[in-house]
Structure formats: C-alpha cells, structure tokens
Write a structure and sequence with these properties.
The protein is α+β, with helices and mostly antiparallel strands. Helix content is 21%, strand content 43%. Helix 3 packs across helix 4 (55-69). It starts with 7 loop residues before the first helix and ends in a 16-residue tail after the last strand.
C-alpha cells in the first residue's frame, strides 16, 4: 500500500498554497481558458447581486482577468495597493511571490467566481467574492486532480493617483476548502467541520466515505497545520491507521489562542487517495459573519 504516498509532498504543497487564499485573492474572477470579454463579465456580475456593482469595481476585475489570462503578473499586481494587507499576515510582496510560484508549478488551472454581495463604506467598497478552482497536476509520480473553493471579503479604495480606479487594500478569508485526489477510484469523502470554533472549545470532525468497506481496506489520518504568513511545514507522510468504520469520526480540542488552522483528512483505499482540507478559524466570534447586508446603491 505504499504507492498512494508517492508524491504526497507535491500534493500537500499545492493544498497549502490554496489554504492561504492567495490564489483567489489575486485572480479570483479568472476563467483562464475562457478569457471572457469585459461586457460578458459585467453581465455575469449583475446577475449575481441585487444592484450592479460600481463601474470601477467591474473595471478592476476585468483588468485582473485579462492580465492573469496573459500570465502578466505585473498587470495583476497593479490592482493591489502598495499598503495591501492580508488578515493572515501577508503583504503585497508575499502575494506576488505566491502567484508566480503557482503559475510556474501548476499551469493547468481554471478559475470561476462571483460577487456574493457588496456595499459602499465611505470612499471604500467592501465585497464578498466566492471563487472556485479546478485543475490537475501531472508529474512522474502520477496525475492529481484538485478542486478548491474560497469566500473572501475584499476592501477596495480609490487610487490616490487616479480616483476613478480602485485598488485592493485588505482581504480576509472567510471560508475555504480543497480536495485533491489521485488513482482510478479514490474514496468519495464528505468532510463535516465547523468554519469557526471558540478558543479551547471541543468540536466534531466527520469524514464520511460514501463507498461501503466490503473487502476493501480503508486507511485514514488527520493532520492540523497552523496558517501563517511564512508558509506551511513540510509534510512527507500521514499517520495512517486502518479504519473499521466508513470514515473518520473524532472530537478535537481547538487551540487556546485565536488564529486559523488548515485541517487535512487523508483517506486511502486500494484504488486511490483523497485529501480533503478545510480552514478552521479559531475566534471568539460564535460564527463567521454572513454575506454583507443588502448592497448600497453606487
């Protein structure tokens, strides 16, 4: 059963990059292969919110789309304020390095996204944006499929040098998850995990496998990795154990200090590997804030 672990380092490295929310922070409206025209993007946004977003916000998203489709990193980063800050501790330079590394190592990615809600706060615009990513990674170790989703809250402010244009100044990841699979028939897993828990509280984790055990051996493991601006620890193996039930069912203790963790669950059978990962926010807030209130008129 050693073959499913070959290339695990590459799998977890990609998952860790997704966990930072960097991908969607920079290129969240992108459909890399489709290359939608600005008028198509504007129409799509209008169908997702009650009131159409301001033209300046649409223009910024279109600029990001066109630049990212060309793999024009400078064009993408031109939409970021020099004072940009990510709530996980990243700055503009950190985001730029992560995007370049992503494009260098994983060119086969397709993005889609939509604005969930937006509102005007003084000169600023705050928008909740949900994003999805799909792709694959081919290597000498095999092919891995990846799907990921995230919900971010972005704050935009007029560019002092050109007040008609917006710049991204602040971002908070509200929710994110990713699934990586390999093999001919990897386990189908449903991961039930809260988005937010209180410091020091006990929470429930359920990773339910859809396929019956029958005669197939099922192995599983759970890891926790703190989310930090400096990156993620290298993980070369999971402490896999034989599972008697159809998945993993545990009670876990949250850290005593506020922060965020990347919870990963690996399930392995004789025909494949599934790695499910989620962001777990440790906060005094009882729950994440939902979508923004009804958007204000421009």
């Amino acid at each position: 059963m050693s073959s499913p672990f070959v290339g695990l380092q590459q799998l977890f490295t990609l998952t860790s990059a997704l966990g930072l929310g960097i991908l969607f922070a920079a290129v969240f409206p992108i459909e890399v292969l489709a290359q939608p025209a600005p008028t198509q993007l504007e129409g799509g946004i209008q169908r997702q919110v009650l009131n159409p977003p301001p033209k300046a916000l649409i223009d910024l998203l279109n600029q990001q789309i066109e630049a990212a489709n060309r793999r024009d990193l400078a064009g993408v980063m031109a939409t970021y304020s020099p004072e940009f800050r990510h709530r996980d501790g990243l700055d503009r330079e950190g985001v730029e390095r992560a995007i370049q590394a992503l494009w260098d190592n994983h060119p086969d990615l397709t993005y889609s996204a939509q604005i969930e809600s937006w509102r005007q706060v003084g000169p600023d615009i705050i928008a909740d944006v949900s994003s999805q990513l799909r792709g694959s990674q081919a290597s000498v170790r095999g092919s891995f499929q990846v799907e990921a989703s995230t919900l971010v809250r972005n704050r935009y402010r007029p560019d002092p040098a050109n007040p008609e244009q917006l710049l991204l100044i602040d971002q908070e990841v509200l929710r994110e998850a990713s699934t990586l699979t390999s093999g001919s028939a990897p386990p189908t897993v449903t991961l039930n995990l809260p988005d937010v828990v209180k410091p020091g509280s006990t929470y429930s984790l359920q990773a339910i496998v859809a396929e019956p055990l029958t005669r197939s051996l099922l192995l599983g493991a759970v890891t926790e990795q703190p989310i930090t601006p400096s990156g993620y620890p290298a993980v070369t193996s999971f402490p896999l154990e034989p599972l008697q039930a159809g998945g993993i069912f545990r009670q876990a203790d949250a850290p005593k200090e506020p922060g965020a963790e990347w919870i990963s669950v690996m399930l392995v059978n004789q025909t494949g590997v599934t790695l499910e990962s989620r962001r777990l926010t440790v906060s005094d807030r009882l729950a994440l804030e939902g979508s923004l209130a009804a958007p204000a008129s421009p």
